[in-house]
Design goal:
By secondary structure, the protein is of the alpha+beta class. Helix content is about 60%, strand content about 15%. It folds into two domains: about 55 residues, no CATH class; about 50 residues.
């Protein structure tokens, strides 16, 4: 896609996004031609800033769909790794508890 066309599309989309967010947040400001920011407050009262940036990529054809699939695969793999780690941790805790129970039983027998 031609850079001039990309710039025009980006400007239109940023304007739409800006107006959409402005209806939700009155303290909103442009910080570059393709991004804007607004203040946020965390539940604990801590303050910070959110920044929204729009980029028109050089992807062609189905590249955008492939990028989505890659992200979904990455998220799914991370969830699988986390589940395996949690299962391994639970198994270790169970082994440790059984080992402690055996030691207590042995100490009880030897103390008799």
């Amino acid at each position: 896609m031609d850079n001039k066309i990309k710039s025009q599309i980006r400007a239109e989309m940023v304007a739409k996004l800006f107006e959409m967010w402005k209806s939700e947040n009155e303290d909103l400001g442009m910080i570059t031609s393709n991004s804007f920011n607004f203040p946020i407050v965390a539940p604990n009262g801590e303050e910070g800033w959110a920044k929204i940036t729009l980029t028109i990529t050089n992807d062609e054809g189905d590249d955008g769909y492939m990028e989505r699939e890659q992200y979904n695969d990455k998220v799914r793999n991370a969830a699988e790794r986390k589940a395996k780690a949690e299962a391994a941790k639970a198994a270790k805790i169970k082994r440790d508890e059984e080992r402690r129970a055996q030691k207590v039983a042995q100490l009880s027998k030897s103390g008799d």
